[in-house]
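To assess whether ligand presence alters the predicted conformation, the chain was also submitted together with 0PR. Input:
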Amino acid sequence: MEESGCSREEVLSLLAGHRARDVPHNHIFSSMCTVPHDLAVTAHELFVSTNLGDPGLYPGTADIERKLIASLGDLLQGKNVGGYATSGGTESNLQAIRIAKKLHPSAKPNIVVPASAHFSFDKTSDILGLEMRLAPYKEGGYTVDTDAMAELIDENTVAVAAVAGTTEYGVIDDVVNVAALAREHDIWCHVDAAFGGLVIPFMKNPAPFDFAVDGVSSITLDPHKMGMSTIPCGTLLLRDPEHMKLLSVDSPYLTMKTSFTLTGTRPGADVAGAYAVLKHLGRAGFRDIVSGCMENTRRLVAGMEAFGYKTVLDPVMNLAAFHAAEIPDGWKVSRTRAGHLRFVMMPHVTRDVVEAFLEDVSRLH
Ligand code: 0PR
């Protein structure tokens, strides 16, 4: 750090230079985050100095957090759900499994998760000292084989998980059967809907994945993915708000005497942003966004197929996967562990972006 500071203009120009080196969103197919809604940015600015880590100082902001959780809980067909705004899917998954572990003390605890589970479950298992058992995919697909999952459960299993909108292929596990296994063994059932939570409810004939499914204990849903909030904003939703108490530690000198969140100081700005988007768009607005993303997904698939690219599966959500093949330079497309091309069709991937990409693809052929 230098002795004397630079002018605002110098600093801003320095920062602009860095930002210019980032990949522009209109070339990003590999991200589950997107450009935030402009209202989220405005709300974020209004709440930028709030700290939900000391909610007694910010009762107004804390109330927004409660409203955010209540709105999302209602969307996911829960009644008076508990939960809180996290830093994202990783924290939500960790905290859900932390509750499960506390409910089932065991000398050698394990969790059984689908082969598709996001790597946040590896972190969770490492931090909580759990064995992570991976249930394989069902033959010929990318959703979990619930029979194989059943075989992996034993008396030391504290939780099972399902993914509603998998990271790599955007498919939805059979939540009904996973939750039935949890009920049968009297253990926790966590649904990771970090991505799918704000997509599936707005699709036609949505697959059952939420609190309407008997046995689902908790759900991860990230507004900073399809909720177009500012980063970072995740949520952990609990069927029974009482379970939150299992996470609590004493915080004697703060305005609230117990703390149940993972982080101490935590932003209210993104929470206000996420809530603003829900209020502004309503279900109808989200339905339009999701239907636009699905339309763009179909256009991408049709365009790619015309050039001989082969899909790995018919897209279930706004995520398309193709067998490995060349793609034009300058575009960010990720690859799954199996080497498939993966396109996440987020709101920033507009029809114009798809057409510009397909135009570049056409030059390869
Ligand atoms: N659960 C699921 C199903 C996820 O897909 C993700 C992240 C998480 C949990 C963890 O969420 P946080 O990253 O919020 O903690 N999925 C994306 C992925 O790994 C995250 C991402 C987003 C990666 C944008 C890259 C990127 O540019 O692909």
